[in-house]
Specification:
The protein is of the alpha+beta class. Helices cover about 30% and strands about 30% of the residues. The chain has one domain (about 15-25, about 35-170). It has helices at about 15-25, 40-45, 45-55, 95-105, 150-170; strands spanning about 60-65, 70-75, 80-85, 110, 120-125, 130-135, 140-145. A 7-stranded antiparallel β-sheet has the order 1-2-3-7-6-5-4, with helices on both faces.
């Protein structure tokens, strides 16, 4: 799993699909059958989605992709929102993952998140914000990290909103 909080990853990728989706005012037709897969984390959660959730302007996403794994970072002043989407090779041991995250990020604590995916938890980072980690099914992993935009109590609702947006587009 990717751990947020560092500087933006990779170079800016200008996705024509992202620009078309972000600037479109015409609703897309609804197709029957299996839902379309998001092409990237920047498509799954757009800058507009982040701005609506947090109520402030963010720059265009900077994306890093490795195979089916994708991370998109949005910045606004000292704030950073990172969206990570992965297709896991195996079902993770969440107790081990939570313990490792708490040990890696000093001053952090874990709390359960209910009603999102099969397993979900917040990793609250004292004085910085929160990360919401969600497993859907056994292998779809989405993480939203909101740091520098307020403490966990202030940004948790926005993290949940952004995770739901991403899961709806996967």
């Amino acid at each position: 799993m990717r751990r947020g909080g560092g500087p933006c990853n990779g170079a800016v990728i200008a996705l024509i699909l992202l620009l078309a989706a972000g600037g479109s005012t015409t609703p897309a037709p609804v197709r029957q059958g299996a839902p379309a897969k998001a092409l990237s984390a920047c498509f799954a959660v757009t800058a507009g989605d982040v701005e609506r959730a947090l109520g402030r302007a963010f720059g265009r996403g900077e994306e890093e992709t490795h195979g089916a794994d994708s991370t998109c970072d949005y910045a606004s002043g000292s704030g950073q929102v990172s969206i990570t989407i992965q297709r896991l090779a195996a079902k993770p041991d969440l107790a081990v993952e939570m313990r490792a995250l708490r040990q890696t990020i000093e001053g952090s604590s874990v709390r359960a998140a209910s009603g999102i995916g099969e397993a979900a938890f917040f990793l609250d980072v004292a004085g910085a914000g929160t990360q919401l980690h969600v497993i859907r099914g056994e292998r779809d992993y989405v993480m939203v990290s909101i740091l520098g935009c307020g403490d966990a109590a202030v940004v948790s609702h926005a993290a949940e909103q952004l995770v739901r947006t991403a899961l709806g587009r996967l």
